[in-house]
What we know:
Blueprint: H1 2-25, H2 29-45, H3 47-54, H4 60-73, H5 78-89, H6 96-111, E1 114-120, H7 126-140, E2 144-150, E3 158-162, E4 165-168, H8 171-184
Parallel strand pairs: 1-2
Antiparallel strand pairs: 1-3, 3-4
Amino acid sequence: MASQLASGDLISDRYASALYDLAAEKKLVDPVLGDLSNLKNILNENKELRLVIKSPLISSSDKLNIFETLLKKINANELTSTFVKVIEKNKRFSNLASIIFQFININSQKRGDVLADITSADELNDDQKNNITNQLKSILGDKLSLSFDVDQNIMGGLIVKVGSKMIDTSLANKINKLKIAMKGA
């Protein structure tokens, strides 16, 4: 199981690195990054699409047709479209979300950005996002890239991940700590 996970990460890293190198060579990093960010948002918002790309019952060519339609809709760069065709040819659609994540990480590292993932129970409004962004920039510096995710399982509060560090102020975490404390009493 661990070796499968590691090989999946390795595969995603290789595809993302190859795409980044090609995009950098053609001076298309920003357009490709924009396309992949749009695809990431579409995948995050659409559970059915996530299930489709992971399903072995749906052919790669059908998955490609879906993604070609999506790419036309977002007016994607030709390099992004070609990359999705390579993903289809090599039957790696199940790795697509991870490849996108790795590409964004590679881009941030090359630019010297600090990545932070913010998870909340509900969608944050613009004022809340700006407040969090400003507070983290005062601590971590201006080269900060934030991604905001929603996970209703945390019930309330926030989870902030920066690199290997995590600050968990979620209600779910506090309830778990309380359960552990009560078992010990």
